[in-house]
Write a structure and sequence with these properties.
single chain; alpha/beta; five-stranded mixed β-sheet; binds zinc ion
Length: 148
C-alpha cells in the first residue's frame, strides 16, 4: 500500500495502484490516475492494467493494490482481466461521504454479478491510515473550490 500511495501522491488526482506478483510479493508495475479532460478512463487501476498487459503479464498471477476501492469501470476491467486478487484502502462509500464524486458501487457487488472465471479475492479497508488522508485532503481542496 505505501507504493500505491506514492503513485497517488504523484498524480493530479490522489489515486494510485500497483500490481504485485502473487508468488513473490514484488511490485511489478504501478500507476497514478492520469485523467485529463480528453480521457476519463485513465484511472490508476486502468493505467496499471494497461501497463501490465502491454508487458504480457498474466493477471491471474497478480494482485492489484489500490489506494481506493475500484470504481465500477475499473472493477469490470479487473474482472475481465482475471486478476487474482484486489486489495484496496479507502472504500468508495467513504470517499463519496467525504464529498468527492464517486460511483459508489462496491467492488464486491460488481464481482458478484460477474460470471467470468474464478472471482478474485478481495480485501478492503487496508491501511486506511495511509489512504484516508488522501481523500480527506482532496475533499478539503474541493470545498475550497480548487480541483484535485
Ligand atoms: Zn476507476
Amino acid at each position: 500500500m505505501p507504493a500505491a500511495v506514492a503513485y497517488a501522491r504523484s498524480g493530479r488526482w490522489p489515486f494510485g495502484a500497483v500490481l504485485v506478483a502473487a508468488d513473490s510479493g514484488e511490485v511489478v508495475a504501478g500507476a497514478a490516475n492520469t485523467v485529463q479532460d480528453e480521457d476519463p478512463t485513465a484511472h490508476a487501476e486502468m493505467n496499471v492494467l494497461r501497463s501490465a498487459t502491454a508487458r504480457g503479464l498474466s493477471m491471474a498471477r497478480h494482485v492489484v493494490v489500490s489506494t481506493a476501492e475500484p470504481c465500477p469501470m475499473c472493477a469490470g476491467a479487473l474482472l475481465w482481466a482475471g486478476v487474482r486478487a484486489v486489495v484496496f484502502g479507502t472504500s468508495s462509500a467513504r470517499i463519496a461521504a467525504l464529498g468527492v464524486p464517486q460511483i459508489a458501487l462496491p467492488f464486491e457487488t460488481v464481482a458478484r454479478h460477474s460470471t467470468l472465471g474464478p472471482h478474485p479475492a478481495v480485501g478492503g479497508g487496508v491501511r486506511t491510515d495511509l489512504t484516508d488522508p488522501l481523500y480527506r485532503a482532496m475533499a478539503r481542496r474541493r470545498r475550497r473550490g480548487r480541483a484535485g
